[in-house]
Design a protein that fits this description.
By secondary structure, the chain is mainly α. The chain is built from seven helices and two strands; from the N terminus they run ββααααααα. A two-stranded antiparallel sheet has the order 1-2. The N terminus is likely disordered.
């Protein structure tokens, strides 16, 4: 499900801190300097530093570039950034993956389409659950 950012102590969304920490940890595991990762991801060194410190909210395009440079899945970084919620095991997320990878959509369109898709899925699951509980059709 598309995530909402949670405020931490009234300053910045928790997901910004989470994604920045995750990126920094992955960068260190890959033994990459900040400068080298910035170069590979196609962003400036100061901008990447701000992302790692939770001061900037990068677009899905920037996150995808960072994911590619770190050789991790974009979905993992999107989850860390609060763009996607963690999905229960067994949930087919191929539709969401397709939405997030579509080069013909803007970041805003991807987010809106993913939110709409998840809302519709959730409504359907709720209806099915009520049907099973009541034993009837709705």
């Amino acid at each position: 499900m598309v995530g909402q950012m949670e405020e931490t102590n009234g300053t910045r969304p928790q997901s910004l801190t989470d994604v920045g920490t995750y990126i920094r940890d992955q960068r260190r595991k890959a033994q990459l300097s900040l400068r080298k990762l910035a170069e590979r991801a196609g962003v400036s060194n100061p901008y990447l530093s701000q992302i790692e410190r939770g001061l900037r909210q990068p677009s899905a395009k920037i996150l995808k570039g960072i994911a590619t440079a770190l050789e991790v899945s974009a979905e993992t970084i999107f989850t860390q950034a609060g763009i996607l919620d963690v999905e229960p095991q067994g949930t087919d997320s191929s539709v969401l993956r397709s939405i997030l990878r579509d080069p013909d959509l803007t970041d805003g369109q991807r987010r809106e389409l993913a939110e709409t898709y998840e809302r519709l899925r959730s409504e359907t699951l709720d209806r099915r659950g009520r049907r099973q509980t009541t034993g009837g059709e709705q």
